[in-house]
Sequence to fold (921 residues):
Amino acid sequence: MKQKLVVIGAGMASGRMLEHLLDADPDGWDVTLFNAEPRGNYNRIMLSPVLSGEKSFDQIVTHDADWYTSRGIDCRFGETIVRIDRANRVVYSPRGGVPYDRLVIATGSAPFIIPVPGRDLPGVCTYRDLEDTNAMIAAAKPGAHAVVIGGGLLGLEAAAGMAARGAEVTVIHLIGHLMERQLDPAAGYLLQRDLEKKGIRVHCKGATKAILGKDRVEAVLLEDGTVYPADLVCMAVGIRPEVRLANDAHLEVARGIVVDDRMRTSDPAIFALGECVEHDRQLFGLVAPLYDQARVLAATLLGQDAAFRPVQTATKLKVTGVDLFSAGDFAEAPGREDIVFRDPGRGIYKRLVLEGDRLCGAVMYGDTADGNWFFGLIRDGTDISALRETLIFGPAFQGGATADPIAAVAALPPEAEICGCNGVCKGRIVQAVEGGATTLDAVRSLTKASASCGTCTGLVEQVMAATLGGAFTANANPPMCRCTDHTHDDVRRLIRTLGLKSIPAVMQELGWKTAGGCANCRPALNYYLLADWPLDYRDDRQSRFVNERNHANIQKDGTYSVVPRMWGGVTTPAELRAIADAADRYAVPMVKVTGGQRIDLLGVRKEDLPAIWSDLNAAGMVSGHAYSKGLRTVKTCVGSEFCRFGTQDSTGLGIRLEKLLWGSWTPAKVKLAVSGCPRNCAEATCKDVGVVCVDSGYQISVAGAAGMDVKETEALCTVATEDEVLETVAAFIQLYRENSRYLHRIYKWVAKVGLVWCKAQVVADPANRRALYDRFLLSQTVYQTDPWAEHAATPRDWAPMADLTLRAAE
Amino acid sequence: MTSLTDIGALDDIPRQGARVVRTTAGCIAIFRTADDRVFALEDRCPHKGGPLSEGILHGDSVTCPLHAWVFDLNTGQALGADEGAVRRFAVRVEGGRILLDAGLMQRRSAA
Fold:
């Protein structure tokens, strides 16, 4: 007598279960298989290649009509079960009842629909079955606009598939980086970059507010006001177990249908498996544990002993040209250590997370060949202490000797490509070195190796070292800091040539060796990015040294000094009164006149800063930037207005210069002075930029110093009008902003690039001067704002977050 | 015995930033890392008393703003060639609120 088995749902889990069951016991069962979808089992996870056009639906069908017929399975495809009568062991569809001895619920999951206005409009779909896939294929015509809400596994596969068909796709993701459940931020960044290369727009930190449209979708509106046009919207924000039938039948249901280790529900005649179940408070969405469940359930039905033990699962994204792998737990936590490998040239990132002697997580991007090997180590809890040194190089490397990079490069054949940008092979570099090119610059100019993106600079140097032996000293320019091998100059060049516009982008593309940089490189990168991309990059306050972050100079006791701007060193009785009042009100311990012709209030407590700034703002004063790598002061003498020797209005010119230049960030501080005659009372000839007025016009000189080094300025040019002074000085400072390394004062930078070059850029080439001037003005549209006014608005941020001394006193 | 005190919301501190909590025995710096972990350290560099809360936070380390000593937030130990340590305090985040065990600091002041 055959047992009656009814299965609800013909998905991958139940399909696999039926295979096991009927292979082991072909004659023991009368199977009736219901499926709401009007078709049998297919490999649902291969819908993505169908969507992208790489496969046809027929290719992903796993069980065809023959398979079901030859096993005598009664297929009820397109027929939905509406009720389970547990007492009589009958299931009901609209067409009537079917009795069972054993019932298997495999209803899978339903996509989650976010409750925003417009979610019911035609043109909104999810990504679950062939119908959804066909809807997307129909909509994804070249030039059509598609929006995918959700940057997880499924959403990105949907996006890539529609993009492959020519649609303009935008992915909206709520979190700061893509696939945050599987990837860390660095791998998420690489993924986003590769998707953007495929023409997919990615909008992270985007919350959907509404789906817009009259009769069908037309656009998607985000909380931040962004609107993306859309002919189709795919919601892929997650799934939830489909448990309605089980609920109605009063089976035990938590988030999913609760099953024990043998896949049995709270009713001993009813079993469940797949995405609809909850086992040990865990839900399942990936195929590997589902197949385990199928094996266990088949054994249970056959009366064998088997228990489901969920194991770690690994994730791969099925997007052509995107190679990523993640497994285990890779969140940072105390006691965990990272091993990180980055190869920016090839876009490879690998991160292993160790806990003690065990591997507990792995994230790989770009080269995932070793993924399954790492996955095995995680799953088996293998002690990796003996492998640790070379673990990240994968199984091929185990047992090998410790790698000497020079030896590895020496072993490369002459035709091995070293510089991918310029197609330079090792033999060409060796030839150049043997021909007498013994410096990196010489090799670079001769062969073009490392002359474009520069990421192979280290390799080129290794080739040189292997060729020259001890005669080679790598890199007279030291690296920027211990986080990187690149010099400041290389980093600046690469930021521009590679179009890097964020600190994480720089760290990834240039192979930073630390996770978050250090106190040396972060301020430098922040400056380089804001100087090169004034409109795209947003200043990162947390990458600034304390004085610039707090817009005041920290003193040795932790108090601050406050210096309001006095344009050209000129003040008024009203300003002086306001300063005196502020000094009284906040009990400022010292008031001092500075060398830059203004007044310093020393010893102000941090929590008083917003209030004192607010008071000074109210009197018309703004920050003097006495703390910044930026424009400090323009010192002046009284000039022709009052002085009997003055030749021009030096005070007025100084004020014009200061009003033009204030607020700009520069590699190091910049101080100017304007003297009204060659007696030079403003001491203009030891400033970064000095102007000395003469009868016929204005002598502009640059690159002076009066600090650790003392140096007289060198003549840049003489011009006839104030307007020419403004344009020339701003253009020169912009040249400095664009080319100097961070923390080099102008005199150090000019010593490196040469005054002749500066003159060629700024004096001899009026069109270039104008372009520099225009770029300076563009940057000023963003950065010429008073930081005091901005921060005075949020005084709470400047006070302690809590004061426990009050609590103790109570 | 520990006495956990709610000192504010996680979002009161910027990522890769810090705020201070004032106690009768000096300030405690509360750091928030880029990945939202929170550490509490005495806000006083053992070198010259610099406020660590004003340092640049990178990874699990902070660099003192006065003379660039670097401290590991996990251990409170100075890194590199410098020797010294700052006291750590138990802190955790629950439901977006930061709970600090400042008991030790207060008891010392009471003694």
